[in-house]
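User: My collaborator sent over this chain with a note saying "see what the structure looks like." That's all I know about it. Can you take a look?
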Amino acid sequence: MTHRSPFRPAALPALAALLWAGAAAGDESSPGERIAELVRRFRGETRARVGVHAVRLDGGRTLCAIDADRPMVPASNQKVLTSAVALKRLGADFRFRTRVGLSGDDLVVYGDGDPTTGDARLCEARGEGVHAVFDRWAAALKAAGVERIAGDLVIRAGIFRPPRVHPDWPRDQLQRWYAAPVAGANYNDNCLDIGFEVAGGKARPRIRPVTRFLAVHNKVKVAGKHVWSCRFSSSGRGIRLTGWVKRTTPDPYPVAVPRPAVLFGCVLAERLARAGIEVNGRIRTTAEAADAAGARAGFRPVATAETPLADVLARANTQSLNMMAECLFLRSAAGPGRPASWGSAARTAAEVLREAYGLDERRFRVADGSGLSKRNRVTPAAITRLLRALASEGPFVDSLAVAGRTGSARRRLKRCRGRLRVKTGSLAGASALSGYVLDPSGRPAVAFSILTNGRTHGKKLTAKRMEDAICECLLRGLDAARAEGDRQARPAAGATTRPARRRSPRRGP
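Assistant: Without extra context I'll predict from the sequence alone. Here is the result:
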């Protein structure tokens, strides 16, 4: 999904000239003029379609509108729509709740669609290991006197209906981390991290997470090239590695698994075994609806794992992790005994966007939650409308990447460092950047959206450099307007600012 643009030094002088031209004017209209010139030049080089919309949050004044009502492919800016729907449907205080307990001889896990279990970044932020949740469950079982599971380990992941990947996603990319499937139970972002250690003329695979319940068949050889592949068995529990590697790989490569609930069950069984709790039966996954099945089975809860919505928003938007966004998308449409599907989630999202946020149904189309589908459409003005509505939602604003500092914006927007909260977006033939310009106190002051479809690279300009330059214009315009307001609020030269002298009440006239 990420498409890195080559560094083009020749573009910098032209961009700088456009950015700083007219900056001394100090009026709030000059940013719009400079943005229009940037877009004109980029269109001249690429013939791409570009839409831009920017508005002040205090009053809604439009700062720039260029094809702002033209529906376009938003790439990962679709996550803005998904976030808005999730906040409205689930609520900012929502928590994913994964329940674990006993049903007869079986140990049963009822998945709630939580995408964060075993996520390395979140675990590091919490100061715990990636197995912490499973180890807490093992401890809870032992505290309840459970030393052995006589039956099966059953993972009920029926809160989402199959298929686990969206029909629009490119079939030749389904093993890439950004196209990882989604399920009612997820682990390690639904990927296996695979690397190789070369020693003695042999290549030994190093696979995380570690579990004895996955069968690995390694046919990779050491050679002068580095090309290897991974194939999964129909059950999801067999892995066949073929190809060649040249040397030890310093970092593992994430490979999406086809059956996430199977990986979840295998790693849980491993952690239970390490805690001394053996599972005598099989590891089974089912698509039975969790709530209804739990009531029928006489489920006896032992432990619950909870994840706040804010954690999922942060991973979906800061690092633009697709599977997090898709779990939000699907979970927003699920209900008790009512599993969500791609179709029902799209219909639910469209309804919320129309009725709760007032979006014109002619201005958007929802296909998936992450933006990986090229059937998604939205206008820049529709995105800024959502951004205005979400500006007071702390979990959403905090989930966006900070310019020049965090997530997908860490290496971008250096001139705006710390003064923008943004959602990036990139697909083949599409680039996007939307978010907020912040005032000096860190509060959202301007909402903007920039969408580009078609060629994203010209001879001198790229879509990303154009986006960054537009943001610089908006930031300079905001600061210039603030400085002008401060100047007008100051008294004229020579005027006194001291209050009139008052007589003391103890003194006579």
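A starting point for your reply to your collaborator: The chain has two domains: 11-89+314-486, 95-308.
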